[in-house]
Fold ABC transporter ATP-binding protein.
Amino acid sequence: MTAILEARGLGKRYGRRQALTDCTLSVPSGRVVGLVGPNGAGKSTLLQLACGLLTPTSGTIEVLGERPASGPAQLARVGFVAQDTPTYAALSVADHLRLGARLNPTWDAHLAEGRIRDLGLDPGLRVGRLSGGQRAQVALTLAVSKRPDLLILDEPVAALDPLARREFLQGLMEYVAEHGTTVILSSHLVSDLERVCDHLVSLVASRVQIAGDVDDLLGSHFRLTTARRDAGDLPEGMHVLQATHTERQSTFIVRADTPGHDPDGVLEPLGLEDLVLTYMAEGTAGPARRPVQEAQR
Ligand SMILES: Nc1ncnc2c1ncn2[C@@H]1O[C@H](COP(=O)(O)OP(=O)(O)OP(=O)(O)O)[C@@H](O)[C@H]1O
């Protein structure tokens, strides 16, 4: 497995606020990685460290084997769209493409012009006159047209309506399938991520709670419904993440490397959204635990 991003003990502090804590993470290349977590968890901080807009307070981060933004060659290999999809309001769409061509050695003009045409955007229109969703599309066009090896998108679909969101993610998937680019995208919308991501990183309260390939994560997390009993009575190998009880029944969310068998209960697979919410609840309820690195099991 070649890692495209490698963080070791990475931390970032803004004044007295610790935004990212002891983050050790290995993101494999060739994946579409979903970064999830509640507001203020540290997602934007991690993404900005990855593209070199921020420098760590502790630990190290390497992207494509080098320190982020260590030089023009490294910068050319990483595309980044920030959360507010920054563009220049007074410049036209065509001006943005000209700027992209002048600033990026690997600029693909054919790709850029094709995307703008497919989006039905008038190249002569000033970007300040576009809707939030259209501006997001222009920002994405700039990022992909530099043909990066790694594309980092901070909440790219936040400003889009559901249909535009679906089209945006579909377009992104087509681009990834064609060019093999690794993508890391953050979002609060787990259902969107479930459709497009094959690797997941969950940050809660500035710490990595869980990281791994989606298939591995889904293959090792289950919901067990049984007659009422204590968590300690469950079969060996089941690590309880969450337990709820009624008078007669208990429901456990468990992590188990193999599904195992419980003669007195019903074991069902867990959806990605339930899995993410379970870890979020666990992470915000108490002290953070050791992160689960499924991919490195
Ligand atoms: N420039 C800054 N100065 C001081 N504190 C900051 C700064 N940027 C972020 N923070 C704080 O760091 C923490 C992590 O913020 P960050 O923006 O990385 O979270 P996030 O997971 O991206 O949140 P959201 O989902 O709301 O965008 C928060 O507590 C935030 O208040």
